[in-house]
Specification:
The complex is a heterodimer of chains A (358) and B (328).
Chain A: H1 13-16, H2 23-43, H3 46-72, H4 80-97, H5 103-122, H6 130-150, E1 163-164, E2 169-170, E3 173-174, H7 182-204, H8 207-217, H9 219-224, H10 229-256, E4 258-259, H11 261-264, H12 267-280, H13 285-309, H14 314-335, H15 339-353
Antiparallel strand pairs in A: 1-4, 2-3
Chain B: H1 3-36, H2 43-59, H3 65-72, H4 85-108, H5 116-138, H6 155-165, H7 173-195, H8 197-207, H9 209-214, H10 219-245, H11 254-265, H12 270-290, H13 300-314
Helix pairs in contact in B: 1-7, 1-8, 1-10, 1-11, 1-12, 2-4, 2-5, 2-10, 4-10, 7-8, 7-10, 8-10, 11-12, 11-13, 12-13
The chains are: A mainly alpha (358), B mainly alpha (328).
Chain lengths: 358, 328
């Protein structure tokens, strides 16, 4: 009754082609945007930004990127951590080499560099498929992490082997470095997240997205109806790596500030983002957000209830988290392969009729 | 002989031994993949779990003692007895069979007919679950494993090579034993698959599920059996690696070592797993020896993957894999 399409008439092509064709969806979306931009920055404090909002926003970008590759194009990648590292190190090199350029450009350029690297490591996807490809992308993961660890040029010959973000400002407000106010870091990431989500949403419902989905559903058949697999697969790798690179750059510059590559961008990060995509829902932008929110909130929740509430040791809570995440992955794959996004779709279907039976 | 060549020979020998251990892990993958089409990422964690269980039983640890202590505020850690190695291995085997049954019944029966990549992701979930489960059950501290395998430099080889080349080779006794055990294991697995009733049934299931079902082979039984076999292989691998470098989290990373071996050898071939393991073992040691020091060292982390990646571009099915035929 409250969520309905009836009476929502379109009188122009522009209206028909809107990102959110249903009025209720549109209003909800505007409401979320207004809340995110105009309400949250005024009420959040340091803890909320660092424990919840920043990781959620950044992982959302990464999950959207990976979802394009895995959910839309069907090419499973386990190299997300490595690509995030590329974004982080590209951003670091750009920040230190061109300090006078605005950091906005650095982050976007870091995404561009990652896209090129992604295409390079996506080349084998033209020959190999399925988990052969998944394993092949592990090569990217290990090689890139090793590269950033061992070649001193990447970390500017610093003694610790770490990279740390220098202070950079936008309109005179610092967004990286130690002086950053919580709301500034939050807004900076939020802008990137919203723009990335918009681009991804529109790419996936346009020609590019349909080509990716055709390749995912059956690549040979797609080739026969005229989808060029080379361009479709490599463009998916490029777009996906672009987003993942931006996420990596933000993760390093805004969220962590200083990064040791093996720790921050190891294989576990690849799995974490993949889990977000699976739990959230393969082939859904909303799912990427839902998955990221879920896996960011779960450890916070467990830590607060088990360690602070019940007084359990931290390592026990960490192990329990492993079990719960692993178990959830299996449960979702068995019961709801399309993840939280599908649950949301089902809920909307129910809301259409509610509270009437028919 | 020039010094470089002698050192090279030593490196190759050590590489071969490391390769045998890689092959051992890869074997577990091949077994499950052949019989059920599941690419079991959790194989490495199964090795870790098996090793943890074995040490836990030998030391007489109380399972879940951390959890029990945290919930009830008690202070229990050990039962206070020590179990002999052989008995502990048997008990661990029982645990692995129970695990195989649980995995099959609770997870993969519900995922029959799903795409291979979904099954693969399910095994990643299983790997995470088992890792947390193993740590909660037995604690996450580094444990020493001692089941009576010999360790240390082999003096006979050292003397022998010293007399010939004036340079004694360093070969670990443990590696020699591991090679022998792995060879025996591979041989018995091949015999089992080729000449026993169950082995034949296993190959039939691998060939065609429905045809196997229609001649009266129980798929459930075969799958549990295969997962148990893989658990057994994992136990052996866990003992070897655990004795070598202690039972700890990094043990589960041997799965990541075995993946390129599989890609090189082909997912469906037992000889492929062995040849691939040897190739990668020798290749990465030689590469590190010859080039690694020039470009920063620790190339073992990625060399195998890059080798397999380049290889796959030219031969997507691996060395011995079945030819991939695609139809619409």
């Amino acid at each position: 009754m409250f969520y309905r399409e009836a009476g929502d008439f379109k009188t122009s092509y522009a209206e028909d082609n809107q990102t959110f064709p249903i009025r209720f969806d549109r209003y909800r979306y505007y409401a979320v945007l207004v809340a995110a931009f105009a309400v949250v920055p005024f009420v959040i404090n340091d803890y909320w930004v660092n424990a919840v909002f920043l990781p959620f926003l950044i992982y959302s970008i990464a999950a959207i990127g990976l979802n394009i590759l895995v959910g839309y194009c069907g090419q499973v990648s386990l190299g997300t951590g490595g690509f995030m590292a590329v974004g982080a190190y590209a951003c670091y090199k750009l920040m230190t080499a061109f300090p006078e350029v605005n950091i906005l450009f650095h982050v976007v350029l870091a995404g561009g560099v990652t896209a090129i690297v992604g295409v390079l490591f996506g080349l084998p996807s033209l020959r190999i498929k399925g988990f052969y490809l998944a394993v092949a992308t592990l090569a990217a993961q290990f090689f890139l992490v090793w590269l950033f660890n061992r070649v001193p040029w990447f970390y500017n010959y610093s003694a610790s082997g770490q990279i740390s973000a220098p202070e950079r400002t936008i309109f005179g407000v610092p967004v990286t470095g130690a002086e950053t106010a919580p709301w500034a870091a939050y807004l900076f990431c939020l802008v990137f997240t919203v723009v990335c989500a918009l681009i991804a949403r529109n790419l996936t419902r346009g020609m590019a997205g349909r080509k990716w989905m055709a390749i995912r559903d059956m690549d040979i058949a797609a080739e026969i109806i005229g989808v060029n697999p080379l361009r479709a697969k490599l463009s998916a790798f490029a777009v996906s790596s672009f987003f993942v690179g931006i996420a990596g750059a933000l993760f390093f510059a805004v969220y962590l500030g200083a990064v040791e590559v093996g720790e921050a961008f190891g294989i576990n990060k690849s799995f974490l983002v993949l889990f977000m995509v699976i739990i959230g829902g393969l082939g859904s932008i909303f799912g990427s957000f839902a998955g990221a929110a879920f896996l960011v909130l779960l450890p916070v929740l467990l830590k607060n209830t088990l360690v602070s509430g019940l007084g359990w040791p931290t390592d026990l809570a960490a192990h329990l988290e492993f079990m719960i995440v692993g178990g959830l992955i299996i449960v979702f794959l068995i019961a709801e392969p399309h993840g939280l996004a599908q649950l949301w779709r089902v809920a909307k279907e129910k809301l259409r009729l509610w509270p009437f039976p028919h | 002989m020039p010094e470089q060549l002698i050192w090279g020979t030593e490196v190759v020998l050590n590489g071969l031994m490391a390769g045998v251990l890689y092959a051992l892990v890869a074997l577990g993958f091949v077994l499950i993949y052949k019989a059920s089409g599941i690419f079991n990422y959790a194989q490495g964690v199964m090795a870790l779990f098996a090793a943890l269980t074995l040490v836990g039983i030998m030391e007489g640890q109380v399972p879940f003692s951390h959890l029990i202590n945290a919930v009830f505020g008690t202070e229990v850690h050990h039962f206070g007895w020590h179990v002999p190695a052989l008995l502990a291995i048997l008990l661990t085997m029982v645990v692995m069979v129970v695990l195989a049954w649980a995995v099959n019944t609770l997870i993969f029966r519900h995922l029959v007919n799903q795409e291979p990549i979904i099954l693969f992701m399910a095994t990643i979930g299983l790997a995470y679950f088992l890792e947390g489960f193993g740590d909660i059950m037995w604690g996450s501290d580094i444990k020493k494993m001692d089941v009576g395998l010999p360790q240390g430099i082999n003096l006979a080889i050292d003397d022998f090579t010293f007399n010939i080349f004036d340079y004694g080779f360093f070969i670990d006794n443990l590696d020699l034993v591991a090679t022998a055990i792995a060879a025996a294991l591979v041989f018995s697995l091949i015999v089992f698959a080729q000449y026993t009733k169950q082995g034949r049934a296993m190959r039939a299931v691998a060939d065609d599920h429905q045809a196997a079902l229609s001649v009266g082979i129980s798929l459930n039984f075969i799958w549990v059996m295969v997962w148990s076999l893989a658990g057994f292989v994992a136990l052996v691998a866990g003992i070897m690696w655990g004795t070598k470098s202690g039972v700890q989290f990094s043990l589960s990373l041997i799965a990541l070592k075995a993946l390129p071996v599989l890609m090189l050898g082909g997912f469906t071939s037992i000889p492929g797993a062995i040849v691939g393991g040897l190739l990668i073992g020798v290749g990465e040691k030689l590469f590190e020896f010859a080039i690694g020091s020039m470009i920063g060292g620790a190339t073992e982390n990625w060399f195998a993957y890059v080798l397999a990646l380049l290889f796959l571009v030219f031969r997507p099915q691996g060395l011995f894999g079945e030819k991939i035929i695609e139809r619409v």
